[in-house]
Amino acid sequence: MKLDQIDKVKTVGELKASGYQSRSIKEELRSNLIRHIQQDKTAFPGILGYNYSVIPDLQRAILARHNIILLGLRGQAKTRIARQMIDLLDEYIPIIEGSELNDDPFSPLSRFAKDMMAEKGNDTPIRWVHRNERYTEKLATPDVSVADLIGDVDPIKAAALKLPYADERVIHFGLLPRSHRGIFVINELPDLQARIQVALFNILQEGDVQIRGFKIRLPLDIQFVFTANPEDYTNRGAIVTPLKDRIESQILTHYPKNLQISRQITEQESKIPGATKQRVKCHDLIRDLIEQISFEARQSEYIDAKSGVSARISISALENVFSAAERRMLIKGEDSTFIRISDFVGVIPAITGKIELVYEGEQEGSAKVAHILIGKAIRSQFPHYFPSPEKMKRQQDSTPYQKIVNWFGEGQSLDLLCDVSQKKYEASLNQVPGLKELVKKYHPDLDKNTQLLYMELVLFGLAEFSFLSKYHLEEGIQFKDLLSSMLTISEDDEDEIDTENYQ
Question: Residue 499's domain spans which residues?
Fold first, then answer.
């Protein structure tokens, strides 16, 4: 029904006269999805990387009128997908006014609605409910009870209305009955106790609910959407087999399959003020490195792959690296700046709290693992900008990096501190012979800031490929000759050195 007609339809009689026809929630979703597809509207806007996997599966499940379980690791947009299903509902539907259960005026469900219809007939007042009111979400936790989901006898209601406990009007309905004609989402389904899962059997299959000893039948009309983490199946809990059997479509979600999609997600979800973006410039290299950290983490021997590595790592890391550069800019009183690789010290807190370490990772420590991931990201991205030092090792002739390496071999070192001004940062990099010339050779048309960033990348890359040593100082990074560092290292220094360079 059109929005301008709603104000004119206020009773059941007027609703009948308007020609309105009720339909089930699953039929409603199906019909609106068909219209979306025919009109070539974007399916589930803002859900990126699922165009050829998850979204087609979702559309098939909705067209088939199925209840759905979204199965995937954390940070794979499962809850967001469920919430966006609201957009496939009709904008408004009518219910009997005062009803707790969103009673359909043409098919009343509750005792209240039936009594109202019997008393007032076509004069029964109706209320129009917006689709946003037809979505219910519940996080499955061990303390969820049958009363929470289904309902229970309410002694206060019985006393207030002076009703015997045999009267069904003393029932206080739970979330499920109140979600009649709507979408009901249970997140982390395996965390729900088995006896509570059993209570969902009849609702999914026959549409029945049982509350205490009452012989009532509530043919609830609900679109169920469940979410679960595959790890939960084996560790924290399990979905009981009969319940799994009643969920018709199981849809597997996944992480972004390439850096481009991952970058789009991070850019979409990160909350960086516009004023900050104007004053702090971020090169594509920085964005690629941040995304590469997540890809490296998902393959790391130190991190529990079954737990997953959420896309929130990249989102938080991008926000943090902007903040690190902004803080430096404010400390030095500069009007603008650009993000440096040395600013990645701000990324460490974004990683350490979002990874679940295996035993080997626990031995290293979360901060050390974060440094290792950043190093691996630099190693992976470096060959996209400069010749691979790994291949150069096998050549007998001098490499493009020889002049740089020789300078460090003469006993020189370079400190790249986190909070130095733009002038000192530039001066530090320019003191390394051959560094600027190398960048100009492979990237001749760079602006000054990008040139400095690439010079920094060369130093970090040579350290990751074991041409130089890299120390983590309290205030930044120190680069030195690899061989002399190995000969002079003491036990007290071991914890300060990125030992990955010596493997």
Answer: 391-503
